[in-house]
Amino acid sequence: MTETLGPTALEARRSRLARVRRRMEAGGVDALLLSHGADLPWLTGYRAMPLERLTLLVLPLVGDPVLVVPALEAPRVPDSGGLVDLLPWTDDVDPIDLVVDQVAGVRSGRFALSDRAWATTALALQRRLPDARWIEASTVTSPIRAVKDEAEVAALRAAGAAADRVALVLQAGGIPLVGRTEAAVSADLGALLVAEGHSTVNFAIVGSGPNAASPHHEPGDRVIGRDETVVCDFGGTLALDGDVGYCSDITRTVVTGDPPSEVRACYDVLQAAQLAAVGSAVAGVTAASVDAVAREAIGDAGYGHLFVHRTGHGIGIEEHEDPYLVVGNDEPLVPGHAFSVEPGIYQPGRFGMRLEDIVVIGTDGRPEPLNTVDHGLVVVDH
């Protein structure tokens, strides 16, 4: 096991366990079973490798949490400070037996299983617990995880500031664009994220010219030319004091020459829409209403059909989590919610643009953008 958990992280995890159990009790959930995905490190600090070997945290409503983990992975599990018991298993043992033993008193109860558990795990548990009732673990954990505590907000601020420093290098021309492939520029962005403290690069989208009209373009061997928009959307995971890492995510669009009037006009609309959406994201409004603000501004300018995705997604341990700024999500925003605001305009086959900041709702109920580098259409002509 790794070094002893610090008092701040220990208290945060103890608080999370207590909140989860209160929600389990309110929802009639007898046990929470967490496998792959962000819920596990959020509660234990342990990021399970996506192995075929079973890893499962069994958190009963009453009783001690037990982490059933492959013995070869046990050395990677951080010290929980006594919050979670460790139950390693070897290859001569059926780990499903160990899990079933942990829930022996509630075999016909209601179980919440990780949304991202392997299907083989889910089916094996259903066979062994035929009288159990099953729901997704996210119905218990997601509303709690969505509201970040003070330490989590600090971690997101640090990740956002690091991503800002990378974006500043990009906007200052520190990453040559013209005559280089999108893949090469993507690699530079990723290397800078690591240099700025990220342990992992989650993505580094670089879409140039017509490729900029593909929001999730995979950077490839296209050579960036002059007088093109280049969408750079990048982020990674940054950990403070060895604790669980939190994500950054930023998008800035640059142009490799004097932007033509059409591109400039589109970008002016995009920048105004993003600013208005960020400003509207105050405590008490719905997630859908923030999406509507961005969508209305772009639609009123005649570009509504070119804005082809939601306005934003929550962020934390995962790049994408609750709350989602999308039509139909009537969840009210509250202090501690953290999310992206990233409208885009995409002209198929010609050009595209997106502008993204991470925003957190502060204790005063107002939006705090975590990304502050230049929001304009910066020219990088080399």
The strands making up the biggest β-sheet line up spatially as 4-3-2-1-5-6
Please summarize the sheet with the most strands: 6 strands, mixed
Regions with pLDDT < 50 over 5+ consecutive residues? none
The residue-averaged pLDDT reads: 95
Query: Rough shape?
Result: elongated
CATH class of the largest domain: Alpha Beta
Distance between the termini: 49 Å
SS summary, helix count: 9
Please provide the ordered H/E string of secondary-structure elements. Answer: HEHEEEHEHEHHHEEEEHHEEEEEEEE
CATH topology name of the largest domain: Creatine Amidinohydrolase
Number of β-strand runs: 18
Structural class by sheet pairing and helices: alpha+beta
Q: How many individual domains? A: 2
Question: If you had to describe this structure to a student in words, what would you say it looks like?
Answer:
This protein is α+β, with helices and mostly antiparallel strands. It folds into two domains: 7-144, Creatinase/prolidase N-terminal domain (Creatine Amidinohydrolase, Chain A, domain 1, 3-Layer(aba) Sandwich); 147-379, Creatine Amidinohydrolase (Alpha-Beta Complex), CATH 3.90.230. The chain has helices at 7-27, 39-44, 95-102, 119-128, 138-145, 150-171, 182-195, 261-280, 287-300, and strands spanning 31-34, 56-60, 66-70, 85-89, 110-113, 133-136, 200-208, 229-238, 246-247, 250-255, 312-314, 321-325, 338-341, 344-347, 351-354, 357-361, 367-369, 378-379. The chain has a six-stranded mixed beta sheet with strand order 4-3-2-1-5-6. Strands 7, 8, 9, 10 and 18 form a five-stranded mixed beta sheet that branches. Strands 13-16-17 form a three-stranded antiparallel beta sheet, covered by helices on one side. It is elongated. 45% of the residues are buried.
